[in-house]
Design goal:
2 copies of one chain form a homodimer.
Chain A: H1 2-22, H2 29-48, H3 61-68, H4 72-85, E1 88-91, E2 95-98, E3 121-122, H5 135-148, H6 163-177, E4 186-189, H7 191-205, E5 210-214, H8 219-227, E6 231-235, E7 237-238, E8 241-242, E9 271-275, H9 289-302, E10 304-309, E11 333-338, E12 350-353, H10 356-368, H11 375-386, H12 389-415, E13 420-422, E14 430-433, H13 439-448, E15 451-452, E16 454-455, E17 472-475, H14 482-495
Parallel strand pairs in A: 3-15, 5-6, 5-9, 9-10, 10-11
Antiparallel strand pairs in A: 1-2, 4-12, 7-8, 11-12, 13-14, 14-17, 16-17
Chain lengths: 497, 497
Amino acid sequence: MEESWATLGVDLHLDTVGVASRTGARAGDATHTGVRKGLTDALREAVRGGRLAPGTRLPSSRSLAADLGIARNTVADAYGDLVAEGWLTARQGSGTRVTDRAVSRPADPAPRHRAAGGPTYNLQPGTPDLASFPRAAWLKAARRAMAAAPNDALGYGDPRGRVELRTALADYLARARGVHTDPDRIVVCAGFAQGLSLLGGVLRGRGLREVAVESYGLDVHWNLLKRAGLRTRPLPFDELGTSTAELSGGPGSGPGSGSGSGSDVASGTPKVALLTPAHQFPMGVPLHPDRRAAAVDWARREGGLILEDDYDGEFRYDRQPVGALQGLDPDRVVYLGTASKSLAPGLRLGWMVLPAPIAAEVVEAKGGAEWACGALDQLTLAEFITSGAYDRHVRGARLRYRRRRDQLVAALATRAPDVRASGIAAGLHAVLELPPGTERSVIQAASWQRLAVQGLASFRHPAATDLPERDALVVGYGTPPDHAWAGALEALCGVLP
Amino acid sequence: MEESWATLGVDLHLDTVGVASRTGARAGDATHTGVRKGLTDALREAVRGGRLAPGTRLPSSRSLAADLGIARNTVADAYGDLVAEGWLTARQGSGTRVTDRAVSRPADPAPRHRAAGGPTYNLQPGTPDLASFPRAAWLKAARRAMAAAPNDALGYGDPRGRVELRTALADYLARARGVHTDPDRIVVCAGFAQGLSLLGGVLRGRGLREVAVESYGLDVHWNLLKRAGLRTRPLPFDELGTSTAELSGGPGSGPGSGSGSGSDVASGTPKVALLTPAHQFPMGVPLHPDRRAAAVDWARREGGLILEDDYDGEFRYDRQPVGALQGLDPDRVVYLGTASKSLAPGLRLGWMVLPAPIAAEVVEAKGGAEWACGALDQLTLAEFITSGAYDRHVRGARLRYRRRRDQLVAALATRAPDVRASGIAAGLHAVLELPPGTERSVIQAASWQRLAVQGLASFRHPAATDLPERDALVVGYGTPPDHAWAGALEALCGVLP
């Protein structure tokens, strides 16, 4: 026993010194505190590690204090700490013992996520060039925002988000996207995904069972709706894009729910469609004007609600951006925007513009869970927008992406003349049509070259069975940093037929 | 007609100039762009505002261009933009008309949240002194974090949160709270609330119906569990605090589920208890050592899971902090911590330390919804912790709050000697016992003085019917900024019996 205590003593000594210096302890009370903490930590580790077995009786505080050359009350305090935490038990007449309960160590180590040997070049769509994030301008805005922030901005906040950001967004969205709103109708959320989840939950709570979606889209979004308890039903897609005429044959008008039931967004079960009107993802076409009109007419006639995913509305190259569908009918369209493409997904900042009837429920759902976004990032984005830095950044990014788009088109014309690029008027990605039956082999060939690309098949809704077989790549030319762009383009041309 | 077009022209002129200068347009192409956008915006507003009624035929692009003194193709482009957006319709042979659909304006203005005439003094618990948020040190950490961040930190991230923060937390929690973990077991979340919601959803998904909670607590938390589909059952509370012996009579062992069913956290339906072991909220006592032991024994014996809400583990004044219960059995305890008390709720940053079996499901639930926290705040907090700024801030805050606690106790001793303060060894709040039957009248008197305080009644679980009638205030002495503290204390003493 003597020897093990001595060993323990050595450990304690080391730990004690370490703790005392780490905590910047000064003489007197602070030294006592540091030594006590060191002793407590060392004893706890000894129990946890099994060196002090369950049931072991510890030396009296007097004798351990003498062994270690420290004050007796320090030992007594350390014992007391560990009794309070449950590592030791003190019983009248039987001294202090290690608790009889077996000590538990975590069963399995958590699975380690190995850093996968990633691709050399990444042309997968969905992420902007992260290297061009305006770090200095963002920090400058953060500094200004912090200086201007009232103290209560740091408290539990309005679930709609900071009023500074909602005000900046209302102005920006009206100016840049033709959105009709005011700050009270805007709810800031942690990216598009949280917005869609909140909406899904609210709509499911109203009895909705199904959402019409586009035949081509993101399975992440379909899965978010599925988690909320909603089926997704794909709308037909043809050479003019998504066909909105079929909305009428859609949710709520099937067997069991009388057609023309007059359900309404204000109270009943709305029929709902999730669309990307400004820039179909991933096909890259804007929703045809007749079909925009048909969608709004449907929503008015049948009490429908359109969820407008305006993920990259800022990036148009050959014409003015198509304004938001929301402007046509702010009572029938929920507008969803995000900073994920214009700035960076890592900010986790998005925004919804909500019709009044549904706004209260969404705010309640968000507030009930207190899923707010960090106030400092919200204030920084507000400052970034109102100072004009956002417009400057978007203009610069638009020029860079447009240049890449032009380089992609030019490279294809000379290196792969049989491959037609579409959806190139806007956004951060293009669709490259491949000869029938070659999509998978091209992706495979790319992966051998350590080039990550995605095929069109992965964007096809599983229930969209009447889609024509189309082989294509969805190429995110916005994704690579500048230094890797030329190499990525070269690698791409190398694997195209 | 002539006159209305002229009026329109004036508007256009104004808007066009404004837009051109705002966007910093240069000569040539950019001017065309600016004028086109100005015209598009003005026409859209004219349609939206009803000045251009549905069905109105617009002048030919040639004649409007002549009227306005701008290029014809600018007008044609603007018409094209508005056709694409659905405001105008162009038909062969009938020119360009305002779409026949009635224009919709939002129905009801969203309810305005008026800035309520808030209290002069706020002693409600739950919020730290926001005025003492270390703004300069935080910005410094943000600058360093931004400089060090790899580009991929700005992309879609690991749903567990940034590895830099999880690594810093693993080290800090082991050192300061005796938590046994590694970075892979930690999941960063948007405050305690998101953590509890995620856990509630996962546990409900496993078939759990009920969670044991403390008789005194926060209805916000009970409601979060309710939203996840879980009932809450209060545990008895006596002079030693929450009684964990009654856990065995708890969820899963009632009628209809055989006792000793051996359900286990690894696979089956765990029995779950939500506790505040280090500092019962709001009563302010640590969980008694015997009851800590009983809780862990229960969890082992019956396959239970303890959710440990360690909301203010950093703030202890008269002794070492009680280490986390999680250290006793990392496989049976989920540790939940937060920056809301130690820094500010507005950061929306919390963390969970999860046993392996449940970690994967929580990560999946969080990742499936992409509810990540902003990467920049995570990186900043990581830098804040590893640089030692967090420890320094906590030490400073501990001294300030301790001084306030001492001032509160001293003021009570002289000004309200019949009021006993308890739960004062730790945290940011104290419980002031009142004479029977006076709680409501004291709160009422306080509100007349514009002093916000909260009574104990609001922290009582509705099903905790066997609690003794206790009249008390829960006073958040940490809440006011320094300049308001003396006044708040004075106002409090003025309303106490």
